[in-house]
Design brief:
This protein is α/β, with parallel strands linked by helices and 324 residues long. The chain contains 8 helices and 11 strands. The longest helix is centred in the middle third of the chain and has 18 residues. The radius of gyration is 18 Å and the shape is globular.
């Protein structure tokens, strides 16, 4: 087993598994949830997985159905290497949602990409979150967590739903909007939101996109020409100081012997690059990784590289929020 790209670019669905139905998915059906946990903790986590589908028939719409077999399989796999980071912190709720085609979406200009993701994927993401709030949450504090397309949907959720429901927003511990740029322009348009400044603040957005410093500005397909705000997932500062592997708590990567994901010594260092709006990793060796976005673009590893630091930080923020 090798690390699979968080945006699955090699699998597809049959022509009759693609739909452009704009009505929100019915989240009263348990089959439309990847995870409905037993409620055992005082904190919840609402998780939206990255793209796990791309179409093979170019004549069909660019959105898959809610029961697409490829998406169901891919989302379960990526849940295990991302969302499990939060399972020691809170009850992890994860809906299925209809996704935009990976290859098509990444080729779009930013405004067209946002229009596509802001359509059906966001319709489902917001409907799922609202159902979660109404039927599962029971007024508990919660963490939002996403990656890639899931994080893009999360930005629409934060800018729209949270603005319209300040009573819900005040219970948000933090939003881990990882693998998609959160720009200063976005925050300027949404003054009710704020970006994290350190390891302890709550009600904030946390974001970064990992790559090698050798990737030229604009060369990261996921980031494009967006300059995102970045926080270092080892030191939890926004300073341009290297956090070494010695400072990390461990990565979550396949074992060389079993190929199963497991805790490994910290593999990646981390340094904020403000001008590029990305997180720089200098210790990764491309030939040891399964990449889907070109040399030096570590999008698939945004969570696995810093898995145990994310877990510890989420627990820290939750503890501080509960003390309030």
């Amino acid at each position: 087993m090798s690390l699979v790209s968080c945006l699955v670019l090699t699998a597809g669905c049959s022509s009759d598994e693609v739909s452009a139905d704009t009505k929100a998915t019915d989240y009263s059906q348990s089959s439309h949830w990847l995870s409905i946990p037993v409620t055992s903790k005082t904190v919840d986590v609402f998780y939206l997985y990255p793209t796990c589908w791309n179409k093979v028939d170019s004549t069909k719409p660019n959105i898959c159905t809610i029961d697409d077999a490829t998406m169901l399989k891919g989302s379960a796999a990526v849940y295990m290497r991302q969302a499990t980071a939060f399972e020691t912190v809170g009850n992890v709720y994860a809906p299925y949602y209809r996704q935009a085609d990976a290859g098509y979406t990444l080729r779009l200009p930013e405004n067209e990409r946002d229009a596509l993701i802001g359509g059906i994927p966001t319709t489902d993401g917001v409907a799922a979150f609202d159902y979660y709030i109404q039927h599962f949450n029971n007024n508990r504090p919660f963490i939002l967590a996403g990656h890639s397309q899931g994080s893009n949907v999360m930005l629409f959720l934060l800018s729209g739903y949270m603005k319209d429901h300040p009573d819900v927003y005040k219970r948000m511990i933090a939003a881990y909007v990882i693998g998609y740029p959160v720009t200063a322009a976005y925050l300027s348009k949404n003054p009710h939101l704020k970006f994290a400044t350190g390891p302890d603040d709550t009600g904030v957005i946390i974001s970064y996109n990992t790559q090698s410093d050798a990737v030229a500005a604009g060369g990261n397909l996921v980031v494009g020409n967006n300059i995102g705000l970045v926080i270092n997932p080892i030191s939890w500062t926004r300073e341009e100081t290297v956090a070494t592997t010695a400072q990390g708590l461990g990565s979550y990567l396949p074992s060389p012997s079993t190929h199963l994901f497991t805790q490994m010594p910290q593999y990646a260092d981390a340094k904020v690059n403000v001008s590029k709006g990305v997180l720089i990793c200098s210790t990764a060796i491309d030939k040891n990784l399964t990449l889907g976005f070109g040399p030096g673009v570590y999008h698939s590893y945004d969570y696995p590289f810093y898995y145990y630091n994310i877990r510890a930080n989420a627990q820290n923020r939750a503890n501080l929020f509960l003390k309030k």
